Amino acid sequence: MTEAAAPQPRPNVLAIPAYVPGKPPAARPDLTTYKLSSNENPYPPLPGVVEAARAAVAQMNRYPDMGGTALYAALGRRLGVPTEHLAAATGSVALIYQLVAAFCDPGDEVVYAWRSFEAYPIAITASGATSVQVPLAAGARHDLDAMAAAITDRTKVVIVCTPNNPTGPAVTQAELNAFLAKVPSRVLVVVDEAYLEFVRMDDAIDGLATYRAHPNVVLTRTFSKAYGLAGFRVGYAVAHEPVAAALRAITLPFGVSSVAQAAAVASLDAEPDLLKRVEALVAERARVVAGLREAGWDIPEAQGNFVWFPLGDRALEFAAACDEAGIVVRPFAGDGVRASIGETEANDRLVEVARAFPR
Ligand SMILES: *Cc1c(COP(=O)(O)O)cnc(C)c1O
Question: Mean pLDDT over all residues of the chain?
């Protein structure tokens, strides 16, 4: 008797790199510990948001509104875009998966900077598409010229992560315009704006104006970071109708739960308060970056709610020193460490650890 054949996933599935989630801190009897490893918002949800979510919980026997009517209407009003130009999903990570799945055949190429968001190679490999990683330039910035030069006949999608997770710098509108002028119109340009609300710089990109001017541009945004809804999984894309329609066509039916939809709508209503908190985080970021630079660290421009320590092969050692001080950061072995801007006490400890770290 021959051994029975077992079902085999497609070979690309076995090649999917693991997503390394930010570790939660271990409880310590001696001190309060903080999680600075996932770029989460340290503030609790605004009161109106909890109430809206609670009201939706009472309806859990019903399927969510598949059309996301209230959410699309609120976003459309807030952004000044037609609802047909929107596609919501379970976090903007889901939208990245959908974009690759909707636009790439197996073997088609997706160009993006590296190091950048670790979900990109996962989503691309999961679809059977091919990653083309373009090394970051000096200052841990996107090398948009090299990215444009990396486009081939097989390229279907290019991703621009701005600000770049995990390194921090954002591209300027002038840089993005020059890049878009070089990208063939048949190539979809994904502008991942997960940290948009934290950007404070001259010539910051205007994503909405950019998408309006370019039918091949899609913006991805999220309620996970500035809006503080990481646990509820809501993100959205803004694009011209053919792109948005493709995303909605392949999305998981009923993916965004009723509770998440209600919380997202309430968060948009609470936006003035949320943006005050963002302002406080931006001020903390400036304080942390100044403290680190004063201590002699070469910290790239930080436009998100995190800072990047370009530590090379000492990344794990630095992360261990942070652990010791009761703060958990996100090391990328052999490359660097990303630390989120969190509670004031946590930020203070981060600067202290960095000051004391022997270099
Ligand atoms: C956090 C993050 C996202 C979105 O995460 P979701 O929680 O899935 O919305 C997207 N892109 C980047 C670069 C991120 O850092």
Answer: 96
- Model confidence pLDDT, tens digit, residues 62-86: 999 888 899 999 999 999 999 999 9
> pTM score, two decimals?
0.96
Cis status, amide bond into 242, omega within 30 of 0? no
Residue of 19, 161, 196, 224 best suited for mutating to test ligand 1, as the one with most atoms within 8 Å of CB: 224
For 14, counting Cβ atoms within 10 Å of its Cβ (0-12 exposed, 13-18 middle, 19+ buried), the class is exposed
Ligand 1 atom nearest residue 225's Cα: 1
Q: Whose C-alpha lies nearest to ligand 1, atom 9?
A: 91
Q: 230 and 38 in contact (C-beta within 8 Å)? A: yes
For residue 332, give the H/E element and its range: strand 330-332
Rounded to whole angstroms, the Cα distance separating 283 from 278 reads 9
Candidates 227, 225, 359, 342; CA nearest to 287 is 342
